[in-house]
Q: What sequence folds into this?
């Protein structure tokens, strides 16, 4: 077959084929760059724009007393949420409106009004579109039943479960347990992997805040796949949130109840310790409040009434309240005297009045105790005896002994808010008051008055140390290693003071503190006068340890505006000790 | 009949059928991702159109292309020009272009008409006069299409027809000059946009440079995105970025047919995911392997198409086969290249894969003509 002559050469055809082949190869090479070499990058880009990572909250651990009784736990709370993706409209404004309408309609169906206004919905649409919008929090069973009945026609709404804190014991140990609020699940600093965080329970005071990171659940992760407009398409759980461990406290709710029963109607505080290891068996402050009022949220009104109440119910008087210890300080003054060689058996004649320079100090016994030695001065709580001794031994000995017993510094308890109190000396007074140390300050301090301040927790510890010879660091969490310090005091000195303290309960000022108790009790009363003139009040103390030999319990209680330590406080402590033994 | 079947190019036919299947699948996937249910059944539509196209294909392949060129190419060209004028006057506007005349797009059909007409007459165009005539034959429809505006169609028609003139030896000196001017022009446009839009250029300077360029604002934006793909990812660069994410996240083996995430989550621009950006849908779901298969299929279409030209005894057959092959190749190349940032983004469909009835029928008719050249080209009259 002869070819027709053509101007179109074979070469041009082959060249065209070559161009096609080269073009396709160029595309293939470039596609390899994008799809093979770039796959990881583009996959990341794809995930970044279409995946929202959410940190989810884990369940908070419970708080138990030493016997496993529940002090704080969780209950499931059901909330009705709205899913914005069901109400997509062309514009955000229309979407917001559609959501508002749907909420209104659902509200009518279940008989609740909408708790959120359009402004909140708009903010949700702008900021967290992919997430469900929580509309009705913590709904009642009735509402839930109505919702579930009608759910088939309430598209875009569902029920989600969250946890709320419950305090089954109500106000019991309220100041110790503390309460919780809500906050976003925290992640390590600079962790920007998460787009959203759930809100989890977070300690706001007390043990709840001190052991917050321990109790807190382990956060989990959920991922939402979102479309180009940001609406959620589907979700999956990457890691389940874990439950926080339970926290066992040293508290014994039996003793705690007994303590709080004694504080009803009073202003005051009481701490019961095991002086051998420092476990706090009970710790109460009055007046108190009901923890259940704090969950899920404390109402503004209630908060204000608590905050403005002159009796200061929110104050934890047991750890954070400081009082002049009054005569309960006298055992330390006595030990200070002994430490510098003051003869304990020398008798001092108490006339009922101690004069020092221009200062006059009355004794509790109007007409005087007559001749007293150290033991009987403790038993009868004779002020002139200790004032007289203090002048002999000087400030330093007393200050040193007070500090030896942990006064003036925080106890180191596993609790956020305990006060250090004050052990004044010349330097301190100059710094705080800008005044020099007057001679009259010393006898005042020797009987626990003046500028000396201590918390009930500190005094319970002092009581324990007087009984055991060891100063323990108190703690709330069970199973902690015992931290205690041996006090460098000769056994002879201990014997004298302990004998005095035994005599206080055995016929002395605190005799009502040992009534009806199966074991011998040692203790010391205190009646500290505060304020002057019209405002003059008495804070009445009783500190005790029992049994007198090898004590297992130490107590300190203070009642504001009482009559006397022996009359007001000692009987209350006796009631508590009756429950313990 | 036996010689008919023998000369029928079975490779091209097979490649075409597979491409129709692939395209229908891609349209199914892209259509399902759309919120509007009307698109969910588009794949059936595509199959029906392909059936019509197949009838035209087989008819054209049986008829001797010479008869078609003799009898039909001139009236077809005239009708094409009339339609292109009509669409400008009474056509309907979709996505910023006046491209639709009733149920079809004249610009798509006109491409084939222009190629047929040119194939018929190119050998007779000689010297400067012939060159000028050729310029009119191509220029008038190209200009009318540009007015719609449809830059993409112009960009594929012009290379195909220029190649035809070149191989037909129509005053090559002039053609080479045009190539040179075109190349320089492209460089100038790119350079000017680069200077105007480069980071730190003052607004005043930008204004001054861009005023001189004969480009529309949206075209300048596309050139800018091509030059600086990382800028303005949520605005002008959004389409290119999403196209690349779709294709790139497909990885080596793809996410599975119907499982393209960027498409179903609507990150890929929905308005064009079934048309100009359908390669992204396909590449995400089938991965690099799928991309290679698709390129191979297109290779089995256009390279044999050009090879058919070598078997043809007369110049008109050769020109027809080369012109149609080049048109299809230009569509394939520009469409895929734009979605991976090799050329600026411009709207044009990917043969067989994009959903578009006029274009599918046009391409199948063109391939039918190549079959006719394959079957009848060896015969001498």
A:
């Amino acid at each position: 077959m002869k070819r027709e002559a053509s101007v179109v050469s074979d070469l041009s055809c082959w060249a065209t084929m070559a161009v096609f082949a080269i073009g396709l190869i160029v595309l293939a090479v470039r596609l390899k760059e994008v799809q093979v070499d770039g796959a990881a990058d583009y996959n990341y880009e794809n995930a970044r724009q279409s995946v929202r990572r959410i940190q989810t909250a884990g369940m908070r651990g419970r708080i138990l007393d030493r016997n496993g009784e529940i002090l704080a736990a969780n209950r499931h709370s059901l909330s009705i949420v709205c899913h914005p993706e069901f109400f997509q409209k062309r514009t955000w404004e229309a979407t917001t409106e559609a959501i508002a309408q749907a909420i209104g309609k659902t509200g009518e169906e279940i008989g609740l009004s909408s708790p959120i206004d359009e402004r909140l919905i708009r903010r949700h649409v702008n900021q967290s579109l992919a997430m469900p919008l929580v509309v009705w929090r913590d709904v009642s069973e009735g509402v839930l039943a109505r919702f579930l009945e009608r759910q088939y026609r309430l598209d875009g709404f569902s029920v989600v479960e969250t946890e709320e804190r419950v305090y089954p014991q109500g106000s019991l140990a309220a100041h110790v347990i503390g309460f919780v609020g809500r906050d976003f699940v925290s992640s390590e600093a600079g962790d920007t992997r998460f787009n959203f965080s759930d809100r989890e329970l977070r300690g706001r005071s007390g043990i709840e805040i001190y052991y917050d990171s321990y109790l807190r659940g382990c956060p989990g992760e959920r991922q939402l796949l979102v479309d180009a407009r940001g609406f959620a398409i589907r979700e999956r759980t990457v890691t389940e949130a874990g439950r926080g461990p339970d926290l066992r406290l040293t508290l014994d709710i039996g003793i705690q109840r007994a303590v709080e029963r004694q504080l009803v109607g009073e202003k005051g505080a009481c701490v019961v310790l095991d002086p051998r290891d420092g476990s706090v068996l009970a710790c109460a402050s009055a007046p108190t409040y009901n923890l259940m009022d704090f969950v899920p949220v404390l109402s503004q009104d209630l908060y204000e009434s608590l905050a403005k109440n002159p009796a200061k119910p929110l104050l934890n008087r047991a750890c954070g309240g400081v009082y002049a210890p009054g005569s309960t300080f006298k055992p330390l003054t006595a030990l200070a005297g002994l430490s510098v060689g003051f003869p304990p058996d020398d008798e001092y004649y108490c006339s009922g009045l101690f004069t020092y320079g221009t200062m006059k100090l009355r004794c509790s016994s109007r007409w005087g105790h007559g001749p007293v030695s150290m033991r009987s001065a403790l038993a009868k709580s004779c002020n002139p005896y200790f004032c007289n001794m203090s002048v002999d031994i000087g400030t330093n000995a007393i200050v040193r002994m007070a500090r030896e017993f942990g006064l003036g510094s925080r106890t180191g308890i596993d609790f956020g808010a305990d006060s250090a109190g004050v052990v004044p000396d010349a330097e301190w007074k100059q710094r705080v008051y800008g005044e020099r140390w007057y001679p009259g300050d010393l006898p005042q301090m020797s009987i626990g008055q003046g500028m000396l301040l201590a918390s009930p927790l500190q005094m319970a510890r002092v009581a324990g140390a007087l009984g055991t010879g060891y100063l323990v660091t108190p703690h709330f969490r069970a199973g902690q290693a015992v931290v205690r310090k041996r006090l460098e005091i000769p056994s002879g000195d201990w014997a004298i003071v302990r004998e005095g303290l035994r005599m206080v309960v055995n016929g002395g000022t605190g005799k009502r503190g040992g009534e009806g108790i199966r074991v011998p009790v040692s203790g010391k009363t205190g009646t500290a006068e505060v304020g002057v003139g019209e405002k003059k009040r008495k804070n009445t103390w009783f500190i005790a340890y029992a049994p007198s030999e090898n004590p297992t319990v130490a107590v300190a209680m203070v009642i504001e505006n009482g009559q006397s330590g022996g009359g007001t406080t000692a009987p209350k402590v006796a009631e508590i000790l009756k429950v313990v033994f | 009949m036996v010689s008919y079947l023998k000369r029928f190019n079975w490779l091209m036919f097979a490649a075409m059928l597979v491409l129709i299947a692939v395209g229908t699948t891609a349209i199914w996937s892209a259509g399902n991702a759309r919120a509007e249910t009307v698109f969910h059944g588009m794949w059936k539509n595509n199959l029906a159109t392909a059936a019509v196209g197949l009838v035209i294909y087989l008819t054209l392949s049986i008829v001797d292309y010479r008869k078609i060129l003799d009898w039909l190419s001139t009236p077809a060209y005239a009708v094409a020009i009339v339609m292109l004028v009509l669409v400008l006057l009474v056509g309907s506007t979709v996505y910023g272009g006046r491209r639709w005349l009733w149920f079809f797009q004249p610009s798509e059909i006109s491409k084939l008409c222009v190629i047929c007409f040119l194939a018929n007459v190119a050998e007779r165009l000689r010297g400067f006069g012939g060159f000028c005539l050729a310029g009119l034959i191509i220029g008038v429809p190209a200009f009318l299409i540009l007015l719609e505006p449809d830059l993409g169609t112009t960009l594929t028609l012009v290379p195909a027809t220029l190649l035809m003139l070149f191989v037909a030896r129509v005053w090559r000196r002039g053609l080479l000059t045009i190539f040179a001017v075109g190349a320089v022009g492209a460089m100038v446009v790119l350079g000017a946009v680069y200077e105007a839009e480069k980071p730190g250029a003052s607004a005043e300077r930008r204004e001054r440079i861009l005023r001189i360029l004969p480009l529309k604002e949206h075209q300048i934006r596309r050139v800018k995105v091509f030059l600086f793909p990382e800028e303005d990812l949520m605005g002008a660069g959004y389409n290119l970025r999403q196209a690349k994410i779709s294709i790139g996240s497909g990885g080596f083996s793809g996410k599975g047919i119907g499982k393209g995430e960027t498409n179903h989550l609507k990150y890929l621009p929905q308005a064009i995911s079934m048309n100009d950006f359908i390669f992204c849908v396909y590449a995400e779901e089938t991965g690099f392997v799928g991309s290679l298969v698709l390129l191979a299929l297109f290779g089995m279409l256009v390279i044999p198409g050009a090879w058919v030209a070598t078997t043809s005894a007369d110049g008109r057959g050769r020109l027809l086969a080369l012109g149609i092959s080049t048109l299809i190749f230009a569509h394939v190349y520009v469409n895929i290249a734009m979605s991976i940032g090799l050329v600026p983004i411009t709207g044009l469909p990917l043969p067989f894969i994009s959903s578009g009835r006029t274009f599918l029928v046009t391409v199948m008719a063109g391939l039918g003509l190549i079959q006719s050249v394959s079957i009848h080209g060896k015969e001498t009259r």
Observations:
- The two ends of chain A are 126 Å apart (CA to CA).
- The first strand of chain A starts at residue 51 and ends at 56.
